[in-house]
Amino acid sequence: MDRRIDTLLVNPLPIRRGTNVWLRRALIFASVVVLVNALVGQGGFAESLRARHEYAAALARLSAMQRENAALAARVRSLTSDPQTIEGVARRDLGMIRSGEVVFVLKPVK
What stretches of the chain show up as alpha helix (H) in DSSP? Predict the structure, then answer.
């Protein structure tokens, strides 16, 4: 081995301490600012949690709307193809009767 390299391996360079305190403080401050920004800044951890909650709520609303949509589609199929359902709606909502039936209108007694 080269004598210079051999000397470095045996006697490592001394570590300098306290040579530039302001640089160390500036790096710590910058690190703290970056950490705080990551936690509560725009696009940070807090906003990420809020977005997850909104996403979960939107999924719940979507699921409820899909169930409601399926129920309404079944009701439409029933109203367009089931004769008993069609007759029931015609009698209840439109006041229709079959031919040969007699309607009795009862008025309340005062």
Answer: 3-10, 21-40, 45-81, 83-94
For tokens 């359902």, what's the residue? 85
- Write out the residue range of the structural domain in which residue 37 sits: 3-94
- In a domain, residue 102? The reply is no
Phi first, then psi: give them for residue 96, nearest 5 degrees: -80, 155
Please indicate, yes or no, whether the overall pTM of this predicted structure exceeds 0.85.
no
pLDDT, tens digit, for every residue of 78-94? Answer: 999 999 999 999 989 99
Kindly state whether residue 110 falls inside one of the protein's structural domains: no
- Is residue 103 in some structural domain? no
pLDDT one-digit tens code per residue, 30-58: 999 888 887 777 777 888 888 999 999 99
